[in-house]
Structure to design on (313 residues):
């Protein structure tokens, strides 16, 4: 239809009639005079509407499903984030429990030996400082740490402080080839010097070449003059091998250290030496060997069967 003056008048007229019918229908309620016409229109156009709804409905459902899927995905992502956070929190609790256990062992050693210690945490290993076996701890001069102080943990001797900064310090580990400490054998009091060998057992030279030593014997630090760099009585390790005595002036032992140098975390710097040598009191109690039960079997000869007895007769 072309846009003419007559067409515009017709459009205005149709709109006016539509508004009039709507007004009459609303006012008439259930008795509306156009109710019959509406039902007829529903009869004619209802199937078409249902068909369109049948086609459009799945599309709408699909759109809703996609939207709901996105919501579910967001919820799953949120749950995964919460799960990760919980695992991290549990992991943190595990680390805290491990550190508390290490601290408890270290305080026990400090109490037995009467060592005044300053607790510290390992924050770096010696890779940044060359090929030495060293660690960096998070205490320094501001915490009262000085050069040549003994460092221990809940298992025994860790090393000695070599350099000190305001808030950190470097510790030379007992496993370092440049490390040497005076030792004393448990019970026999035989003296020697232990040297580090990296990831191998410590090498100990006893001053007495004829000393009686066996595998399983234990050593502690002998101590230094003025208790620097070593205080006495700190557990060092257990004898794992003894070289045969060849009439030399010294005797060579190989000692497995009590401390695991590859898994250090919580350590203590001895800032106050004991008033007297604790001797062997700091060593852990030896585990009693479990006795092997002995079973005695008594064999009683059985009487021969009647048939066998008669046959032998």
């Amino acid at each position: 239809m072309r846009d003419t003056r007559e067409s515009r008048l017709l459009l205005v007229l149709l709109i006016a009639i539509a508004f009039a019918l709507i007004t009459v229908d609303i006012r008439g309620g259930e008795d509306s005079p156009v109710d019959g016409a509406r039902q007829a229109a529903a009869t004619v156009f209802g199937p078409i509407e249902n068909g369109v709804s049948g086609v459009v409905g799945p599309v709408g459902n699909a759109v809703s499903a996609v939207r709901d899927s996105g919501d579910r995905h967001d919820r799953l992502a949120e749950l995964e984030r919460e799960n990760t956070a919980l695992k991290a929190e549990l992991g943190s609790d595990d680390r805290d429990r491990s550190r508390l256990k290490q601290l408890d062992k270290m305080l026990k050693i400090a109490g037995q030996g009467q060592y005044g210690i300053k607790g510290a945490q390992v924050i770096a290993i010696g890779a940044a400082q060359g090929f030495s076996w060293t660690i960096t701890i998070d205490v320094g001069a501001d915490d009262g740490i000085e050069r040549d102080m003994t460092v221990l943990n809940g298992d025994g001797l860790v090393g000695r402080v070599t350099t000190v900064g305001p808030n950190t310090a470097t510790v030379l580990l007992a496993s370092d080839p440049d490390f040497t400490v005076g030792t004393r054998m448990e019970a026999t009091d035989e003296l020697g010097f232990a040297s580090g060998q990296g990831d191998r057992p410590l090498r100990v030279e006893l001053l007495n070449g004829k000393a009686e030593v066996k595998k399983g014997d234990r050593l502690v630090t002998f101590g230094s003059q003025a208790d620097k760099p070593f205080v006495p009585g700190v557990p060092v390790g257990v004898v794992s091998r003894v070289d045969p005595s060849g009439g030399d002036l010294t005797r060579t032992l190989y000692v497995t250290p009590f401390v695991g140098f590859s898994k250090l975390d919580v350590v203590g710097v001895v800032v106050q030496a004991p008033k007297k040598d604790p001797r062997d009191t700091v060593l852990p109690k030896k585990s009693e060997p479990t006795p092997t039960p002995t079973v005695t079997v008594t064999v009683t000869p059985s009487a021969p069967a009647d048939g066998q007895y008669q046959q032998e007769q």
Observations:
- Residues 140 and 168 are 4 Å apart (CA to CA).
- The first helix runs from residue 5 to 28.
